[in-house]
Amino acid sequence: MTEQLPIARALNLAMRDAMTADDKVVLMGEDIGDLGGVFRVTDGLKADFGDRRVLDTPLAESGIIGTAIGLAMRGYRPVCEIQFDGFVYPGFDQIVSQLAKLTNRHRGTQPFPVVIRIPHGGHIGAIEHHQESPEGYFAHTAGLRVVAPSTANDAYWMMRQAIESDDPIIFMEPKAKYWTKGAVDTTAPAHPLHASVVAKPGEQVTLVGHSAMVHVLLQAAAIAEGEGISCEVIDLRSVAPVDYQPVVDSLRKTGRCVVAQEAPGHASIGSEVAATLMERCFYSLEAPVLRVSAFDAPFPPSQLESIYLPDADRVLDAVDRVLAY
Amino acid sequence: MTRTQLLAADGTEVRSDENERHWAVADALDDETRLGMLREMVVTRALDTEAGNLQRQGKLGLWAPSLGQEGGQAGVGFAMRPQDTLFPSYREHLMARMRGVRFEQIIDIFRGSTHGGWNPAETQNCRLYSLVIGTHALHGTGYAMGIRFDEESGSGDVDRDEAVVICYGDGASSQGDASEGLVFANTYETPTLFMVQNNKWAISVPSSTQSRTSLATRASGFGLDAAEVDGNDVLASYAVARQMLDEARTKNRPQYLELDTYRMGAHTTSDDPTRYRTRDEEEAWRQRDPIERMRAHLRSRGATDAQIASVDEEARDAAAAVRGYTMTAGSPSSDEIFDFVFSEGNESLEEQKLALARFEASFGGDA
């Protein structure tokens, strides 16, 4: 069955379907019950599943993640909501020192099927700590899987797949695109959880990104097309692990690549992707792989965010530069 | 807050109106069980001492002794029921052994061959040691939330209802996770006993730096039932913990027990207590040793020298066996680096594992 759904509703439906299929799936987070979450992603789920399946927790991120770990030890499959990207850090130790390592410490005898949902990224004009892109911290940490859908169909299926995974998943949600609609086909998933895909085919330059940035890349590709430049857009979908094959295939065709992200560029996912492409595609490269990132400065006040965050113009500037080689 | 004591430091019984209800629980223990308490303490101390020696001989990278804390650990260990779950920190060697962890499995952590050591499904729900101070307070609380959601507590049947024991110390009590554990335990009314061994020192920092009130007083403010006990008095620790655990399991009321004890050894073999505390202080606590106290108690109840000596003999044999194991134990395979990072295969890790094998093979000889 296919229906048009905004990303927020697709996520909601995925959690609803997962909870219906498995009564060990529980939701945890701040304000996710009667309010339905500050973005309404869990809207209606407490009313339908009750307060033992949808937990309005005390206001403590470490407490949420830490108790989710304990619930996983007990056989539950917790899905935790972190209210905003910049609020995940109080739970950082529980994620990177505990959750990420516990499968390894148990030598695989105990699964840790914990999903941590993090609405991330800018473009919503919010105050400090509400627009960050912390996925690089988690992608760097061994033992975590980090995914970031950009479409409604991926939002639905990647959430279903994340909840079914026996490993911890950091699930980055493109909050600026929560209300962007797309076709959701609930009959079967289009891709495995960690596959990267060609979002738009092209010939001359490969544009790589994840989450809301994919929308910027598609916009840039459309503008470039008007100027006679054909760009291929790759949606990474997963930043740990990264499925490099579609990117490598694309780069072998185009010889030129721009990696874009909302996070600051230093030691970022874009850095890792660029380095790996250099190792794997050295003889195919016609130009250095360029990164387009936020600046290496804290996320600025919202009146400056459109300057801080890469937009289509900055992506196109990089496209011009790789084409100049 | 009153600190419950049933045996004075010299082993004589302390009976009063105040501790009468605790004596009622302790008096129900038969002599065999009391001798069993002594056995757990003496054997663990012998193993512990042996492990310290092995570290000094370069066979262990580090050792964290539990010297002096055996009384409270044996008391709570005996108070636990088979269906209970233990979340230890990294110094509950006695309690871990009581749940079925072999001491060799603990040794494996400290000789650097594993970060885990055992499978909790095979050790009567003794979860793994936890090294980041206080973090497991939340894991234990979450686990206890699961017990509640499963409706495996609160029926009133002590032989069926499950409970969780979470162990940490005075240092951990300052960690945010420890407080968040109390908050969540209270919010979700979990069947939990927080077993807090106030051993007076967090490495070199005295417990007075962590709290100017007793830790139990602090827990009361969180809404938990809280009590203090002489943690070097195994009978008192048992009696109080037994009642609190059964209160937790049957009524879903989280409990907090502060055990007044002393870390007689170093924090770990890397520590040097002479830099921060006095010999006099250590000697004063040696006079309150939990093992000597229990020996005196058993003698007063008619235990023979032979019975007490047999425990010492058992301890010597156990220590010798652990020494033998440690001297001959091998190293883990390099596959351990890669094989359990995720529950499912990971292409990148598989490639790295293969690359390592090729690299090793490039030196010739057996790969």
Query: Helical segment tally of chain A?
Result: 11
CATH architecture of the largest domain in chain B: 3-Layer(aba) Sandwich
Number of domains in the coordinates of chain B? Answer: 2
Mean pLDDT of chain B: 97
Order of helices and strands of chain B: EHHHEHHHEHEEEHHEHEHHHHH
Helix content of chain A: 25-40%
**Looking across the biggest beta sheet of chain B, what order are the strands in?**
1-7-8-4-3-2
Strand fraction of chain B = 5-15%
Low-confidence region ranges of chain B: none
For the record, what CATH class of the largest domain in chain A applies?
Answer: Alpha Beta
Question: What is the CATH architecture annotation of the largest domain in chain A?
Answer: 3-Layer(aba) Sandwich
Contiguous runs where pLDDT drops below 50 for at least 5 residues of chain A? none
What is the average of the pLDDT values of chain A? 98
User: For this structure, what is the CATH homologous superfamily of the largest domain in chain A?
Assistant: Thiamin diphosphate (ThDP)-binding fold, Pyr/PP domains
The portion of residues forming beta strands of chain A comes to 15-25%
The profile of the biggest β sheet of chain A is: 7 strands, mixed
Percentage of residues assigned to helices of chain B: 40-55%
What is the number of strand segments of chain A?
14
**Number of E strands of chain B:** 8
Structural class of chain B: alpha/beta
Describe the model.
The complex is a heterodimer of chains A (325) and B (367). By secondary structure, chain A is an alpha/beta fold. Chain A folds into two domains: 2-185, Thiamin diphosphate (ThDP)-binding fold, Pyr/PP domains (Rossmann fold); 197-324, Rossmann fold (3-Layer(aba) Sandwich). Chain A is built from eleven helices and 14 strands. Chain A has helices at 7-21, 45-49, 61-73, 92-105, 135-139, 152-164, 213-226, 245-254, 269-281, 305-308, 312-323; strands at residues 2-6, 25-29, 54-56, 77-81, 115-120, 145-147, 169-174, 181-185, 197-200, 205-209, 231-235, 238-240, 257-264, 290-294. A seven-stranded mixed beta sheet of chain A has the order 3-2-4-5-7-6-12, with helices on both faces. A five-stranded mixed beta sheet of chain A has the order 9-11-10-13-14, with helices on both faces. In chain A, α1 packs parallel to α6, α3 (61-73) runs parallel beside α4 and α7 (213-226) crosses α11. Helices cover 48% and strands 9% of the residues of chain B. Chain B folds into two domains: 3-328, Rossmann fold (3-Layer(aba) Sandwich), CATH 3.40.50.970; 333-367. Chain B has a six-stranded parallel beta sheet with strand order 1-7-8-4-3-2, sandwiched between helices. Chain B has helices at 20-26, 31-56, 70-79, 93-99, 103-110, 135-149, 176-187, 207-210, 215-221, 234-251, 279-286, 290-300, 305-328, 335-338, 347-361, and strands at residues 3-4, 85-87, 164-169, 192-198, 201-202, 205-206, 225-230, 255-260. Chain B has 15 helices and eight strands. Chain B has 367 residues and is an alpha/beta fold. In chain B, β7, α10 (234-251) and β8 (255-260) form a beta-alpha-beta unit. The A-B interface holds A 26, 52, 57-58, 60, 62-63, 65-76, 90, 93-94, 97-98, 101, 103-112, 142-143, 145, 165-167, 241 and B 114-116, 119-121, 127-128, 132, 135, 137-147, 149-150, 176-177, 180-181, 183-184, 187, 336, 339-344, 346-348.
